[in-house]
Amino acid sequence: MDDATGRPVKLDVSDVCIGYRDRRSGSFFAAVQDLGFQIHENEFIAIVGPSGCGKTTFLSAVAGLLPIAHGTLELNGAPITGPAEDRSLVFQQASLFPWRTVAANIAYGLEAQRRLDAAGRQRVADLIELVGLAGKEGKYPRELSGGMSQRVNLARALATDPDLLLLDEPFAALDAQTREVMQEELTRIWQADEAGAGKTALFITHDVPEAVFLADRVLVFSASPGRLVESVPIDLPRPRNRDVKRSPEFMDQTEYLLDLVMRQSGLRQEVES
Ligand SMILES: Nc1ncnc2c1ncn2[C@@H]1O[C@H](COP(=O)(O)OP(=O)(O)O)[C@@H](O)[C@H]1O
Ligand SMILES: [Mg+2]
């Protein structure tokens, strides 16, 4: 299945409902509903929307950690039935193994997949270089700053060359300056990581400028239950660096999206009234 541009569909989301059942009453609560869109190969997608609109719920379902209650959720044409090696997850809090060094943390996925051969070790070494951790490979997580920990987390997720990279507010816990650096680093890594050249990303954030800076397309979710409100292509040229944030195109798209997101959370009415 191809889109108009001829790129293969990576993730097909059609009429999806995902929710939670209350254990006591047995009643079902829909966190996302009537959700439908497609993500194509090599697309970097950002999802924004008000808090509680089901972004994490949706990402968990794509990761295979939550079942869908209704609809179709397909990766490469096959239904998602559980977690698998073709997807890597990065959360807000770096979840590193405290007893493993930086290098051993990054190697973890390859090791688990019995792929830590000469090529695997080279991949780990390349990634350490790529994410700017050269000289830190022997350190333990407790010796790292928040930004460094998220670099390790990112490198670990990239190490297995996942088909789909899932990121849930990975920079939200970082201070503003580190966050800015990491956004730039992620685009650089994304553009430079040749081994993972065929990768696709789903990046959740509530930071609209971050979404515009990183993404090829921004999906805006409505307030709970989350539905797709609009899909906004970001046509800023690549490679991007922080200078792009001063361009009129960046500011226009950011303002447009901020307005859209604020309408979803009902904030716009408050501001206007
Ligand atoms: N494990 C859970 N059990 C029951 N309800 C949940 C659970 N996780 C999230 N929810 C609810 O689902 C809705 C969507 O949550 P979430 O996906 O975390 O939103 P977001 O990531 O957009 O902030 C919220 O109303 C939240 O309270
Ligand atoms: Mg969330």
TrEMBL record:
Residues 11-248 form the ABC transporter domain. PROSITE patterns: ABC_TRANSPORTER_1 (PS00211), ABC_TRANSPORTER_2 (PS50893). CDD domains: ABC_NrtD_SsuB_transporters. Keywords: ATP-binding, Nucleotide-binding, Transport. It comes from the Bacteria. One of its GO terms (molecular function) is ATP hydrolysis activity. The keyword ATP-binding applies. The keyword Glycosyltransferase does not apply. InterPro entries: AAA+_ATPase, ABC_transporter-like_ATP-bd, ABC_transporter-like_CS, ABC_transporter_ATP-bind, P-loop_NTPase. This is Sulfonate ABC transporter ATP-binding protein.
